[in-house]
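Lab notebook, bench 4. We co-purified these components, and the gel suggests they stay together. Before we commit to crystallization screens, I want a quick structural picture of the whole thing.
Request: model the full complex, all chains together.
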Amino acid sequence: MSNSSVVSKIDNRNLKRRLTNTQKDNIFGMMLIIPAMLILGIVVFAPIIKGIWMSFNEYTIATMNNPTWNNFQNYKKLFESKEIFVYFKNTFIFVFFAVGTQFVIAMCIALLLNTKMKYTNVFRGLFLVSWTIPSVVVALLWSWMFQPQYGIINYILNALGLIQNANMQWVQSMKYGMVTVVIATIWKQTPYMIVMILAGLQSISKDYMEAAEIDGATKWQIFRHIMIPSIRPVLDSTVIIAIMSNFQMYTIIYNMTAGGPVNKTTTLSIAAYNKAFTEYDLGAGSAIGVLWLIVLASLTIYYNKKSDKRNNDTM
Amino acid sequence: MNKRKKIMGPILKYFTICLCLLVFIFPVYWMFVSSFMDNATLMAWPPQFNPFKGTIESYKKILSMPKYLVFFKNSTIVSGLTVLLCIITSIFAGYSLSRFRFFGRNFFMTSILSIQMFPIVAILISLYTFYSKLGLINTYTGLVLADTMLGLPLSIWLLKSFFDTIPTSLDESAKIDGCSRMGTLFRIIVPLLKPGLVAVGIYTFLQSWDDYLFGMIIMNRDEMRTLPVGIAQSFIGEFAHDYSGMMTLAVCASLPVILMFIFLQRYMVAGLTGGAVKG
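Here is the predicted assembly.
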């Protein structure tokens, strides 16, 4: 009787000590997260909340000190003038072509680099150079290459006989403004995607491919039914990151076309910037930001639901 | 037939890759060539492709203008401090997320991931109002904090995945040997993390060196301006038609990152892909 109570007492004490130890650990863990949380709280979450509040107010540089509720005027104006649809359309066009094209190019190059060959790492390194070039420089460099009179691109295209007009307008033309911006963006971002896809491809075990080859699978079948499913998570996360970051794209577009000509390349970020810092209407700028956040958040939720469902189906 | 295929296959492959590479490298080459030409040569027809026939006049001109050295200095200070701040906070946060299961952990992880979704311009608009009240406009602190936010989510995520690869038994044996919690982290675990730290450092440096938007709004005085903003503004202003000078500035801004990349490439590729491939 007394013996067993002693045992249970020791057990209890041990349990207590263990619990407090893990609790201490967890408190330590929470303390470690505080610096990151503080920084993100100050420069991300507080501004986002304030931005949402600003978007419902008359908030210009002049009325900054006493903003007033303006009954959805910021949003009404955006929708009544239909400009918001133009911004969304431009953004979607830009993101779709920039990400889609770089995905296709990166996939092809990564597949080539993944075959049995020498100097894979050297090639990968050389491809990555354009990724390190600062965005402002990318914008200036491509504006210079697309320059109508002295630009190298007109010279090359003319020498190859692809264009008749040696002084063709690119960046400032209604037709090709968006194309030039997309090309510059692809040039900067594709290398990153090549590296990610290549890393995914290299992580696939060779056994699967050999087994499939022995079973007489064609190259296309191997690609479609072994490679793609194996690197699906890498592809998904890489493409999602590319989509998100191209929604944000400001530097290259602004420094090449500044949103012109006639709003042809005005994406959401250019529009929000112009509203806030050239028209000094911070409330209207924030309203664009809020609409943009709503659209991206709903796309993300939709994607998560779909991928959950797909995971359940395959399992 | 079969033999011919065997020889032709690889040749075709290398040829395709070299062709793709040419397209990607040519603009960089052209930037260097243009920076070594005077404007008369650049505007001549046909273009001059050989950089050795050029001059270094543009470089002399740029380097003799003190304001570009100031921009350079500002960018270096801001990027350096950003890297430091980002590495320290993400070591703490990454270790914590990898080792401890505390209340609010999942919430924090999802909120880190959702940051990428937030419109940076919208953040900047309200950050600007905060900063003007707090007097952080035109200060290094203000810009460093803002730049840190660009790199922090991925840095935390990457370092967490690096911490995940280090077995917890190491922590435990350090603890048994009487090491404090902080001691365990900095004396035992962090030294094993060097490749991860280098990767995070380079990534953060590239991000803040590249930043244009925050720099433009937060630093509006000439002596505080960072390099990307300085370059973009001189392109609108004094270098509007001086393409040679413009490309010289472009080379000066890219060279530090290209060189850093060449020396540390191995770590960077491992770091960038390590976190993503493992998932």
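The two ends of chain A are 53 Å apart (CA to CA). Worth comparing against the SEC data before the next meeting. The first strand of chain A starts at residue 57 and ends at 58.
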